[in-house]
Amino acid sequence: MIMITGGAFQGKKEYAKKRFGFSNEDILNGGSCDLDAVFNAKCVTDYQLTVKRLLEENADPNEFTRRLCRENSDAVIIINEIGGGIIPIEKSERIWREETGRAGCIIAENSREVIRLVCGIPVKIKG
To answer: Could you tell me which of 105, 82, 80, 79 has the C-alpha nearest to residue 93?
Structure first.
């Protein structure tokens, strides 16, 4: 597994397409795809939105993420860093940020490589 992270609009998806030769069809959007499809996907973008959807369905995002790591260890997972900045007033938004951070830790732990994009520049932080 390879994890690509960074803030919003930092070029994560374009980096994955260029580095791994993915087409648009190879990349699932975690905010709208069939959740079962991530277990066979080459690449999943916006994994933070997958976490949000799981929380809305009262599913455990940590268990889902562990299953993803077990069943699709060759996937490239793109996840936005959403934990910085002002702490949201709404409890559900705070829970989402916390659970996204936990999911990111699980993915990073199970990844052979972790790349953070800053202003479109990849910085390898693992592997």
So the answer is: 82
Q: How confident is the model at residue 83 (pLDDT cuts 50, 70, 90)?
A: confident
CB 22 within 8 A of CB 127: no
Q: Taking the model in full, what pTM does it have?
A: 0.95
Written as six digits, the tokens of 122 are 């990849």
The rounded distance, in Å, linking the Cα atoms of 75 and 42 is: 5
- Cross-strand partners of 28: 44
The whole-angstrom separation of Cα 85 and Cα 11 is 20
Domain residues for the domain of 35 are 2-126
For the chain, what is the domain count? 1
